[in-house]
Design brief:
Elements: E1 2-7, H1 14-27, E2 31-36, H2 50-65, E3 83-87, H3 89-92, H4 99-105, E4 112-117, H5 118-122, E5 138-142, E6 159-160, E7 174-178, H6 187-195, H7 206-215
Parallel strand pairs: 1-2, 1-4, 2-3, 4-5, 5-7, 6-7
């Protein structure tokens, strides 16, 4: 089994890491791949360039694996803590970052479980070659606070599963909604705080926050609406928002 959390990670924050650790424990994965969407085709360009986003993703994985995260960020106490592995697969592959292409490349590692947020699930019909997804992967969905499994329509070709452990018993096509409460952080919130000169240490792993400060990332608006949080902020398959495929 291969568990995967994809996103633009602009920047990677504790919400992403919490979802990766909780999701990995739920499906019984020994590791979770943090997959950088290097060139998302379906949205405005990320604020940080791909080299910075890749560097921060690697640092976040290092912090998580070294136990340098707050106590509430992690797998349930009764579960094994998965290792987080940053992947540059979409960085080294030319062209747009299509989830379906990445999953097809990883077919020999099935079952594949793709982690995504409820916002991303709502727009999954817009993803590139979405009709191929049920034959390639399972979906593990992180609901918004207070949202039920049935608040979202079931994507065509997927079967709703009551238990995350069932994902291990099928090659693909299952979908499970996570009941655990997730950390309510977004990349937009992080960028806003940095732009305002506020401390964002509580939202990021230690090495990522140090990296952002040392390089003054997100300290200047790229467009007039940045200070108000304007523009598209979703990422394809991301947990707090959309990762457009």
């Amino acid at each position: 089994m291969r568990a995967i959390l994809g996103g633009t990670f602009d920047p990677v924050h504790l919400g992403h890491l919490h979802a990766a650790l909780v999701g990995g424990a739920l499906v019984g994965a020994s590791s979770v791949t943090l997959l950088l969407a290097a060139r998302p085709w379906h949205r405005s360009p990320p604020r940080a360039n791909v080299e910075h986003r890749w560097a921060m993703l690697r640092l976040a994985a290092l912090d998580a694996n070294a136990g340098r995260l707050p106590p509430h960020i992690g797998a349930p106490a009764s579960s094994s803590r998965p290792v987080l592995e940053a992947s540059e697969r979409e960085l080294v592959r030319p062209g747009p970052s299509y989830t379906v292409a990445t999953l097809a490349e990883m077919a020999d590692e099935r079952p594949l479980v793709w982690f995504l947020g409820a916002d991303a699930l709502a727009s999954i019909h817009t993803w590139h070659r979405v009709e191929e997804l049920p034959a390639l992967c399972h979906l593990l969905v992180f609901n918004r606070p207070g949202e039920t499994d049935h608040a979202q329509g079931l994507p065509c070709g997927f079967t709703r599963l009551a238990n995350a452990a069932e994902l291990r018993c099928r090659p693909s096509g299952g979908i499970h909604h996570v009941a655990a409460e997730m950390t309510p952080i977004s990349a937009t919130t992080v960028r806003r705080r940095v732009l305002a000169g506020a401390d964002a240490a509580a939202l990021l792993s230690p090495r990522v926050w140090a990296y952002i400060r040392e390089r003054a990332l997100y300290a200047k608006p790229d467009h007039p609406s940045a200070a108000q949080g304007g523009g598209q902020t979703g990422t394809e398959g991301g947990v707090q928002s959309k990762r457009e495929n």
